[in-house]
Fold:
Amino acid sequence: MKLFTMYKKGRIENKRLLELDLPKNIVSKSIIFSLIFTVIIALPCIALIASLLTVFSPVRVMFWITLVLVYLFLAIVYASGSAFNVVLLKNYIETEEIKNIDTKSIFVSELLNPLVLLVGIILGFMIYYMAS
Structure:
């Protein structure tokens, strides 16, 4: 139940963040740095997952476990990139509206985002199709 309330609060916090009138250069700077952070975190894990997927065939159970790990990794990387973007905005801009935004709620709302679930399912089907 607490997870669902954090999800709803994160959606509200995201809308509130989008409605703020923030300077475009600072927003673009924070997006670029959070993207660099996300790529640096993701690259070693992508290499590991790619090597695991080439070792196992779709008949084995480990292949399917790896596909679930791919989805979890995708969701966590997406959510951590969004949360890091908010942390950077909090450090760049010294307003009270930004300081009151809850980063944990934004992380949970991005982690449970239905779009990430859809992308994960499509990615899983693509990996299965290429492996078989």
